[in-house]
UniProtKB/TrEMBL annotation:
SUPFAM superfamilies found in the cross-reference section: CheY-like
Protein keywords: Phosphoprotein
Name of protein: Response regulator transcription factor
Biological process, per Gene Ontology: phosphorelay signal transduction system
Organism: Pedobacter psychroterrae
Residue intervals of the Response regulatory domain: 6-119
Top-level taxonomic group: Bacteria
InterPro entries recorded: Bact_response_regulator (IPR050595), CheY-like_superfamily (IPR011006), Sig_transdc_resp-reg_receiver (IPR001789)
4-aspartylphosphate PTM sites in chain numbering: D54
Matching PANTHER family: RESPONSE REGULATORY DOMAIN-CONTAINING PROTEIN, STRESS RESPONSE REGULATOR PROTEIN 1
One Pfam family named in its UniProt record: Response_reg
Length: 120
């Protein structure tokens, strides 16, 4: 049996965290959540296989977090899908190093497809 892939969701909206966590667990993923994107910058190990990162979180710009993760040797290859309610932020998300972008509210099937694509 293959090890469950781990996905971390960083979003400051508890409703989104709960809904996405439930869907991904149903999809067979091991899910962890945080309402603070900077949590990942403090981690030393146990990184997820993929990060779903909200662009706007209280106190943190997800793009800054993304840039720092992509510069770090330990996390530079971890796929990051950035999510935002604004389509205008897709370009800046990609510039920050995000591997993909999803606009809120997003379709769960689309999210699952993107996660499958990025987690080899």
């Amino acid at each position: 049996m293959t090890k469950q892939k781990r996905v971390m969701i960083a979003d400051d909206d508890p409703g989104i965290l709960d809904a996405v966590e439930a869907m991904l667990e149903f999809g067979g993923y091991n899910v962890s959540t945080t309402c603070n994107g900077a949590t990942l910058l403090e981690m030393k190990e146990g990184f997820p296989d993929l990060l779903l990162l909200d662009i706007w979180m209280s106190g943190t710009d997800g793009r800054d977090v993304c840039k720092l993760l992509k510069q770090d040797e330990k996390t530079k290859d971890m796929p990051i899908i950035m999510i935002s309610a604004s389509t205008e932020l897709e370009k800046s998300a990609k510039e920050a190093g995000a591997d993909d972008f999803l606009e809120k509210p997003f379709d769960m099937d689309e999210l699952l497809d993107k996660i499958k694509f990025h987690i080899k």
